[in-house]
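User: Please predict the structure of the protein below. I'd like the answer in structure-token form so I can feed it into my own downstream comparison script.

Assistant: Understood. Taking the following sequence of 262 residues as input:
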Amino acid sequence: MDSQIQIIDSKTGKSKRGISGHTDAVTGVSFVGSSNIVLSCSWDMTTRLWNRKKIDESLSIKHPSEVKALTVSMKLGKGASGSRDGMVKIFSQRSLKTLRNLQAHNSDISGLSILAEEQKILTASYDGTCRLWNLTSYDAEKTIVKQKERIRSMTATPDGVNVFLGLQSGKISKVNIGNTREKSELVGHTDIVSALSVDPTGQYIASASWDRTIKIWALDNNSVLASGKLMTGISALVWSIDGNTLYSADQSGAIVSWTPFD
């Protein structure tokens, strides 16, 4: 919320470097290829690409409204950021040049996920829809879900088979991208599902909620394997590359590491 980006040493939990430049809350951060390149988006209506060795030379894209979500694909060399007006900007990962503007939804973008093997991107929104787009033609291919309830978070399995949608009610919808009639629900949270993250193996999904809990689910039977609780709502989740550690960020400003399988 203080507009700062902190690079954290995952072993010690200490900040290695701060990055200043945004002028409002930072809503998304991702490393790009190495720990030297950082992509971020903010309520200041920009998406920025930072080189940690040349912090003062950041590249930026301007949105017409606050930016809420981002994703990047090293394989395709493309990234995407989505804002509160429903627009998704597709950009070059290297130069941050805008390749296409997609008026994807009519309300806040709440989730983006690139399916690199299929050269497609999933978009989700507060308007209750999840859509699949072609990253070559930039055409909309299908609507995965259309409902009245807000979608607050989204993630997809690494193989591009299933998409998971975190809902306003606390439910999680699991939908087969190829056959949207094949769907199920993961029920366990009692408030907004604010973040979702599939582990690198595609066997588990972590979910976080404003009910202050984190849950680990087995994807073969949608059962809860582990659960943890914090003193405040959780806003972000990400797995380590080896899948052994889960990191959460919460509304107190803390980053917490979890080892759910120990």
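That's the full token string. The chain has a mean pLDDT of 94.
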